[in-house]
Design goal:
Shape: rod-shaped
Strand order of the largest sheet: 1-2
Strand content: under 5%
Helix content: over 70%
Distance between the termini: 207 Å
Amino acid sequence: MERGKMAEAESLETAAEHERILREIESTDTACIGPTLRSVYDGEEHGRFMEKLETRIRNHDREIEKMCNFHYQGFVDSITELLKVRGEAQKLKNQVTDTNRKLQHEGKELVIAMEELKQCRLQQRNISATVDKLMLCLPVLEMYSKLRDQMKTKRHYPALKTLEHLEHTYLPQVSHYRFCKVMVDNIPKLREEIKDVSMSDLKDFLESIRKHSDKIGETAMKQAQQQRNLDNIVLQQPRIGSKRKSKKDAYIIFDTEIESTSPKSEQDSGILDVEDEEDDEEVPGAQDLVDFSPVYRCLHIYSVLGARETFENYYRKQRRKQARLVLQPPSNMHETLDGYRKYFNQIVGFFVVEDHILHTTQGLVNRAYIDELWEMALSKTIAALRTHSSYCSDPNLVLDLKNLIVLFADTLQVYGFPVNQLFDMLLEIRDQYSETLLKKWAGIFRNILDSDNYSPIPVTSEEMYKKVVGQFPFQDIELEKQPFPKKFPFSEFVPKVYNQIKEFIYACLKFSEDLHLSSTEVDDMIRKSTNLLLTRTLSNSLQNVIKRKNIGLTELVQIIINTTHLEKSCKYLEEFITNITNVLPETVHTTKLYGTTTFKDARHAAEEEIYTNLNQKIDQFLQLADYDWMTGDLGNKASDYLVDLIAFLRSTFAVFTHLPGKVAQTACMSACKHLATSLMQLLLEAEVRQLTLGALQQFNLDVRECEQFARSGPVPGFQEDTLQLAFIDLRQLLDLFIQWDWSTYLADYGQPNCKYLRVNPVTALTLLEKMKDTSRKNNMFAQFRKNERDKQKLIDTVAKQLRGLISSHHS
């Protein structure tokens, strides 16, 4: 029962659920009915629900039928009216179709026109859009075209600026266009191209200034020369408030605008063409010859590109290489002045360019870099000049070189480079210049001395007399009073040598100009060089003349006279140096001239040569002596050779009238002593083993002839018998043997007042031995044999006593 109740309860619940589902189906949209139906299929009462659903459908059909039946008449009427309307509608449709056909026919052209208008409007919109886009693109294209034009005309820095504007201002506005992407891709390439082209221009510039450095330097040195000439003119004229040209005035200010489109700023040649200037026009500035725009452009371009340091390093490296090339002198530079000039021009040109770069760029080169280059250049230049100047043997070339070095130093000093070392080196070259002058003047003196006739200068008129006196400081009142023609005591080489000494002093003075030396230094330099000229060059030249083999006594006498007058002229040379240097001789540390010593030495050498020459002549005459030492005949006159010798000596000493008295007296005494010594040697020589009393008698006649010559006073100034003393040894020896006064000799030997004081026992013994041998072999007088034996015994006795004197003397 309970089970029945439970089934009934379940049936009621199912029925209620089905009712709910049906209401949902009726009230729910068809699209959302799926979940409701799923709940039916999920349950177990599917059949009942279908039955319930059929029941509900039948109920609704009945209600619909009832409703239709209630409204049927109205429906029929409506259908009737609808049928009527359909006919009218058909008519209306036909009319509309006909109207449409007519309208289509009539509006076909309009439609075509409208279609054309539509296309036109579309084109207008497209054109307008295109114009707008082109207005955005046109500046880009214009800038790109401008960039290309600038690249084509080599305006690289403006091109780089244009490229910057193009990249950062214009291209971002139209970056979605394909051509812009192409441009963007080309920008790095263009930058590299600009960079490469500007570097190429820089290389061309560097190569150009390397080739034209000598022209730049030549112009700069001409400017410096003009300025120096102008300063010299100003210094010679009264001036008020004048100022020396400053370093700033040496520069030509370059107003080079890098972005300028002027032809000059866009030229890539480092050197501008300069027309030949007229002589009276100003020499163009060194920088006027150079267009530095390639350097400025390249510097700015690399700065903009962030590679300034790379550019600076490259520029300095290349210029260092060029400096080494410039500083390498040609091997034949020393041969001509043009070689030195070209070398200096290149160095000056190099540093003029670098100095201008230093003052017109910000940091491309700095003072430390310039100083480093200059130190290197200075050391190499000085080394090259020392080497090549040492080859110079022409003093004129050395002097021209000195002037060129001074101009070189002055030019670089204007640009602020220290040049003290160059002037120090010039002091070294000064010594070399002095040596070349000494060599040149050695040739001049040699020519003068070789061409001189060594005869007093004859003058036949007042003009000739004044001409000689004007060339050489000579005063002689007695000579002035003499009538013409008359003669100066000296020969022509005296005024010539004196004037050449003055010319040498002038040549030394020329070198000291522009060396910034004080008057005392110049005076000291001239005096030292002149002393070298006198003590070495002129002295050697005089000594060479004096020592010549073919020099005659007349020439030697004239040389002594000439050197005497040159010695007197030394004070005038002192005055001459004082006048040109304005340094008084009394100044402390002033070097004195050694001319007096030089001429004294030369005169003494000439005197010695006279003595030697005289002795040689005497020896030549003595070689003609032909004594018969075994003769028994007694002669009555002197030997012929001796007579000729005495005649030669008389004529020779007659020439000595112009010599100083002591010189003539010394020469005469020397000749007599040498003659006496030679005669003594002739008498005692070993080859003469035997001699007779007759030979001694002849020898005695020759000695008497010599004594007669000495007594005649061939040279004035000797006291009585002074000259005869030269023959006193011979006289006493001959008297001893001829008078055979051995008892007196042996008795008085060693006493101060001995009659034969000058006879040496050795000499007497030697001569006695020669006579003893003769006595032994002489058999001519047999009837006097006892007398001969007595004489022989006497000779032996005397010889024995002489040996005793000799041995006692030695002991």
